[in-house]
Amino acid sequence: MTLWKQWFLTGIGSGQMTKKNVNKPFIIMQKLMLIFCCILMQCSLALAQKSDLDLVKETVQNYMDGGTYGDTAKMAKVFHPTAFMKFVDVKTGEFRDVPIARYLEGGKASAGKKADRTTKIVNIDITGTAAQAKLELEYPTFKFIDYFNLLKINGEWKVVSKIFFREDKK
After folding, report:
1. Could you say which of 3.30.470.30, 3.40.50.720, 3.40.50.300, 3.10.450.50 is the CATH number of the domain covering 52-168?
2. Which of 31, 36, 148, 166 could make a disulfide contact with 133, Cβ separation 3.0–4.6 Å?
3. Each residue of 118-166: pLDDT tens digit?
4. pLDDT tens digits, residue range 15-40?
5. pTM for this structure?
6. What are the extents of the domains in the chain?
C-alpha cells in the first residue's frame, strides 16, 4: 500500500496499532504540516493584497509626484474623466468650477520641470467605496491645502472632485 493510501485510510482518530499504521505519528505529522502549509499560503495571499488605505495613498501619492515632477499623464490617471476642481479665487473672491481636463492642460506648460515644493498627506478617511483625502503642497511663498473626494470605481480609486485653498506665507 502506498504511503498516500495509508495516509487517507488510517485517519488521525482510528486508534488502531497494526502493521499498516505503525507509522501513525509520522503520518499525523505529515497531515499537520500540510494543514500548516495551507494556512500559511492563505495568510501570504491576504498580506499580498493591498488594503484600500494603501490604494488611496498610492492614488494620492501619484497625484503629488505627478505635480512635483511635471508629469501630467501620471496626474491624469488619478482623476475620473468627469472630475471637477472647485475653488474660490483669493484675488477676486469668485467661485470657480474647472473641469479636470482643463486643469491638466494648464499643467502641460511645466511638463518635465521639478517644482520647488514639499508634499504630504495630512489624513485619509475611507467608508466603503468612498474616501476623502487632505493634502498639503508647500511652496516657498505659499501653500495649497487640497481636499480630494475619491470613489472606488471598478476596483480603482479615482478622484471625482478636488477643492483647495491657497494660503500665502507672511
Report:
1. 3.10.450.50
2. 148
3. 999 999 999 999 999 999 999 999 999 999 999 999 999 999 999 999 9
4. 555 555 556 666 676 776 777 655 66
5. 0.69
6. 3-48, 52-168
